[in-house]
């Protein structure tokens, strides 16, 4: 069973930045496409974007130009979600997943508020 663990969430003011990490217990992030999603209570999980190889794509329109997904060059089992110019509507619990494996992390909460 592959485990994914998200970290790096927290509370930040509008306009601030956070970097989330997704760490896997096995070497799957460098092999398979991975994705970041976010969700608020009572709402559907929303795709943030995918990373396949070194290419990130399918960013949600609401995060284009502000968020980026990329690998940790020092750790093949880690992927980052860099979030800049955060807005209150970015508040959500953020999850990483590897769809082909079917693994999801427990998520990390991001709260953007003044």
Element-level helix/strand string: EEEEEEEEEEE
Helical percentage: under 10%
Q: Characterize the biggest β-sheet.
A: 7 strands, mixed
Q: Tell me the strand percentage band.
A: over 45%
What number is the mean pLDDT? Answer: 96
Number of strands: 11
Shape: globular
SS element count, helices = 0
The first-to-last residue Cα distance is 40 Å
Looking at how many chains there are and whether they match, the oligomeric state comes to single chain
Task: Report a brief summary of the structure.
This protein has 114 residues and is mainly β. The chain is built from no helices and 11 strands. The protein is globular, with a radius of gyration of 13 Å.
What does this structure look like?
The chain has 114 residues and is an all-beta fold. Helix content is 0%, strand content 52%. It has no helices and 11 strands. The chain has strands spanning 4-7, 10-12, 18-24, 34-39, 46-52, 55-57, 67-72, 75-83, 92-98, 103-104, 108-112. Strands 2, 4, 5, 6, 9, 10 and 11 form a 7-stranded mixed beta sheet that branches. The chain has a 4-stranded antiparallel beta sheet with strand order 1-3-8-7, with no helix packed on it. It is globular, with a radius of gyration of 13 Å.
């Amino acid at each position: 069973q592959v485990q994914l663990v998200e970290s790096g969430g927290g509370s930040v003011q509008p306009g601030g930045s956070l970097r989330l990490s997704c760490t896997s217990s096995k070497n799957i992030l460098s092999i398979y496409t991975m994705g970041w999603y976010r969700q608020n209570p009572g709402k559907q999980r929303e795709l943030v974007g995918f990373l396949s190889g070194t290419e990130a794509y399918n960013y949600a329109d609401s995060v284009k130009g502000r968020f980026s997904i990329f690998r940790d060059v020092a750790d093949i089992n880690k992927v980052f979600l860099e979030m800049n110019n955060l807005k209150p509507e970015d508040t959500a619990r953020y999850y990483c997943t590897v769809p082909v494996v079917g693994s999801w992390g427990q998520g990390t909460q991001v709260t953007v508020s003044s």
